[in-house]
Amino acid sequence: MSLTRLCALADLGPDKITRVEVEGRSPVALALADGGAVAFDDTCPHADESLSQGWVEDGRIVCAVHFAEFEIGSGKAHNAPIGCGRLRFYPTEIRDGAVHADLAD
Amino acid sequence: MLHVKDPIGANLDRPLAGEDFRAAERFLYTEARLLDAENYTGWIALVDEDIRYWMPGMETRRRDDKRGPYAYGEMAYFDDTYAELKVRVARYNEPSAWADNPATRHAHIITNIEAYETNDPTLVAVFSCFTNVRNRNEKDQDVIHGRREDVLRRHGAGFRLALRRIFTVHNVLLSKNLNTFL
Amino acid sequence: MCKAGRPDMKPAYPQAGSYPQFADLVDTERSQVDRKVFHDEAIYQAELRQIFGRAWLFLAHESQIPGAGDFVRTKMGEDDVIVVRQRDGKIGAFLNSCPHRGNRVCMVDAGKKARGFICNYHGWSFGIDGRLVGTDGKVYDTDPDFEKHAITLTPVAQVASYKGLVFGTFDPNAPSLADWFGPFTWYLDVMLDNDPEGTEFIGGCIRSEIECNWKFPAENFVGDILHAYWTHQSGAQAILGGGVDLGPQYDERAFQASIYGHGIETNLDKTGNTKTLGYPELVDYVFSQYDKAKDRLGETRARMVGAISSCTVFPNFSFLPGQATFRVWQPKGPNKIELYTWTLVNKSMPEHIKELYRRGTMMTFSPGGVFEMDDGENWEYCTKANEGWVTRHQPLHYALGISSKIDAPDLPGHIHRGSLNDANQRYFYTRWAEFMRFDNWSDLMTAETAPPAKAAPGVAAE
Prior knowledge:
C: Rieske Iron-sulfur Protein
């Protein structure tokens, strides 16, 4: 497992979604949930909008643009427009106060 | 006991048949004829003293809105007991009920009648549609369309109105008032 | 269009003008109003600009939209507006019209927890804060000239609350809501602040259509209790078992008060209006709360809580204290309104008391109500009669009680003795004329309808 450092845990806030640029791949989004940090693709699987405009509500990531909701962990889509796929989540680990994720394919 | 906020308990696999159905149908037509004639005293004589008579306001809501287009306990046109219906009848019978003097011309058109047994042998469930036309003075015309869900209580050879749910197709009532029963 | 530069998408708030020729149709010297104000299309358009384009207008009760994303749709004049609770708890209001092609972005009357509002036409998506958050997500985002961040639903210029009631104005230069009311809040508090826990609306809104000019119902509620005696005999007979009795309580212990065109007529009989709802239990309840209200509001206002009384907040928001019906007369051209009605109760009331208010307003002031039923036709024919060319040139009489003005140092505003009086209606039309005449708030807030200076307006009565 190869971990990529994304940001300091202190940079994350309740309910909000933080976008992190990662060299060589599409941006990753981070949010606080389940007592820790969760990492997922920032690009909404529906229409390429940034999920960092959205928020966390009742265990789901909510896209602010067309209001699809994704279950944290499984990424299963609810209330989504036609053609919206599953949101991909990545395993995370906190090391030295920073959030790391395994972004391997 | 049925409540006006709930569906009327029709057993759709047990429709009323023959003379029983015709009696239920005749009840609705008689009621409409009395209302057309502004015979409110005659009409309320067909009403059970335990009546609940409800016509909620109809809102436009998103399909996924759990509240739906109406909610019991919120704003309504009618949510009456027998005592409250009697107050309305008392007003109609006053000569100074100006919205009815000169008289309003009414046509209560009742269609799409279906009648079913309920789990209570003394009660039957009846669905119908209505078009209510009121016209007064030269050309003041108001038309209301909607559906009704009634519970009729068996009473001798006929029925009494025990419960009525009225759902119009209108969001904004296209009338200045509602000087009739539906 | 063929030069194809970038658009300026800044929200626009039209400026007011001045229409002295319309203002002159209200003849304060002779207590007359020219019928033209009730039927003329050009005057109606001027009303949209001068009055509905800049007055503070009633939008909602805060209790209707308690959580983030909760919203109702309503009108300000003929403009469709979404009123929505923000994630920080504040209330925003926006024109319900997409800045792309103008389509409505919200088709429904109300809802809970909206994520935002998406236009059905091209999928432009707006947050509950009105900002454009995205479009289709494909095409516009690849257009380097598209300035997404410059685009928003047009915000209502100012939104503010007074004790649970939310108002908005399209005029960025309008005075604060507090200044707009002035000491009239002393009277609003009779309904809004007779209990420490405040008020709420019962859910839902009943809406109906009346073919009348919006000013007839507004003037009726601002100060025409006299009509009840004739118009509402049948309803009073049905509910109370007797006609309306014009006893001394309408004269000796009654008054009309007007401030900036807002007006209330009231007597001090404690429960006259509440009685007409038809439930003795409600009357007992109002009596049982009297001492508490008196501690809070003083004797005069405590006696008003359930009294025979009616009120209009200029221009088109009205209510009946004691009967708990609150309503807006939404203009739809010079000859039509949509009437929106709600029922207001104190949060602290027991559920069965709230339920009796709901049923009581349904029985009385609702399209099928035994009182309201007889109002609409009067207002329709007050309006329709002016189709006659000669008829429309005839004078109208607004002169009841022209010598009844009193000082009343304990009561804020312009006070007239007795509630059977045209005084508030004269002030209402005077205010209307001020809005037609003046293009600026400095003149508007110091004109004739402004409250007279009193020793301690609003508290003198305590």
